[in-house]
Amino acid sequence: MEVPSPCDGIRLASGRATDRLNRGRQDPAVSPSDRQVALVTGGSRGIGRAIAVQLARDGFDVALCYRQAAEAAAETAERIRGLGHRVFHGTCDVSELDDVQRFIKAAEEDLGELALAVNCAGIVKDNPLVLMDQGAWKDVLGTNLDGVFNVCRTVVFGFLKRRRGGIVNISSVAGVYGNATQTNYCAAKAGIIGFSKALAKEVGPYGVRVNVVAPGFITTQMTEGLGPKVAERLMPSIALRRLGEAAEVADLVSFLASNRAAYITGQVIQVDGGITL
Ligand code: NAD
């Protein structure tokens, strides 16, 4: 029997796939050959680092890429090794398809086939639109949105073929509600949401799930630049009256990647302390 496919030209044998994504997770009896591999882009620091480390705790071997900060990446890698997991790390510019293909090929040769991709790489280049140059627009769209396409395009056929795989894309509440001075960032983060919903519909019949996590203000190097005054101004609009921690975003990604979320796909889930209520 074959499952009807929304994907032109792809015909795959049927089988129960959803149960397989997290086969063996958190099971100390699992042998290294049964381990699954997760890719985390932007995994060197901040939210990406917290996700990479949490996924290792959950039982994944981890491939992580980043643009700069090799030292931070080495530290993340060390933490993952400390948890008894294998790690592959290196630079890769997610805005370049060739670079993404090269990195994923090398990661899979080293660790094995990917079962999960978390797109977390992101940048900001804020300015009111009247002052925003085309470079700031292109750079932010290139990393934050093209990057998601490049990674998903590279991994998705393998996921479909193996009838196994999950994707979690990191958007932002700014992509849901908009934020002045961030037209480029909001366009990219809103684009991720539309992209992910469409992809969830395409690949769902193969047991592959795609979800979006939209953080509010999280304490990382990205938000450090905003300074204490901005955080102070924001506080009254955050129901929980504090900024979030990267680990709190990682917990949600961990859940979405697990079988506990086996019936959740195409969703946008906010981790924002109630900033948007
Ligand atoms: P960060 O600046 O601390 O880390 C960003 C990571 O992305 C780094 O590892 C960096 O090397 C990597 N990166 C940047 N450009 C890249 C490229 N072209 N190719 C590959 N890697 C690249 O930022 P963060 O605060 O940890 O943010 C992580 C993600 O979460 C981003 O997508 C960001 O938009 C999103 N987010 C953050 C917040 C927040 O408050 N910090 C809120 C909402 C969404």
Helix content: 40-55%
* Global structural class: alpha/beta
User: What spatial order of strands do you see in the largest sheet?
Assistant: 3-2-1-4-5-6-7
Shape summary? globular
> Taking Cα atoms only, what radius of gyration do you get, to the nearest Å?
18 Å
Summed up, the helix count is 9
CATH class categorisation: Alpha Beta
Q: What CATH architecture do you see?
A: 3-Layer(aba) Sandwich
Distance between the termini: 47 Å
In percent terms, what proportion of residues is strand?
5-15%
CATH superfamily: NAD(P)-binding Rossmann-like Domain
Give the assembly state of these chains. Answer: single chain
Main beta sheet: strand number and arrangement?
A: 7 strands, parallel
Report the mean per-residue pLDDT as an integer: 90
Present as ligands are: nicotinamide-adenine-dinucleotide
Low-confidence stretches: 1-30
Protein model, in words:
The structure is a single chain. This protein is an alpha/beta fold. The protein has a single domain (34-271), classed as 3-Layer(aba) Sandwich (Rossmann fold). Helices cover 43% and strands 14% of the residues. The protein contains nine helices and seven strands, in the order βαβαβαβαβααβαααβ. It has helices at residues 46-58, 70-82, 97-111, 134-162, 173-177, 183-203, 221-224, 227-234, 246-257; strands at 36-41, 60-66, 87-91, 114-119, 166-170, 209-215, 268-271. A seven-stranded parallel sheet has the order 3-2-1-4-5-6-7, sandwiched between helices. α2 links the parallel β2 and β3 (87-91). α1 runs parallel beside α2 (70-82), α1 packs across α9 and α3 (97-111) packs parallel to α4 (134-162). The N and C termini lie far apart (47 Å). Mean pLDDT is 90; it is low at 1-30. Nicotinamide-adenine-dinucleotide (NAD) binds at residues 41-42, 44-48, 65-69, 92-95, 120-123, 143, 170, 172, 215, 217-218, 220-223.
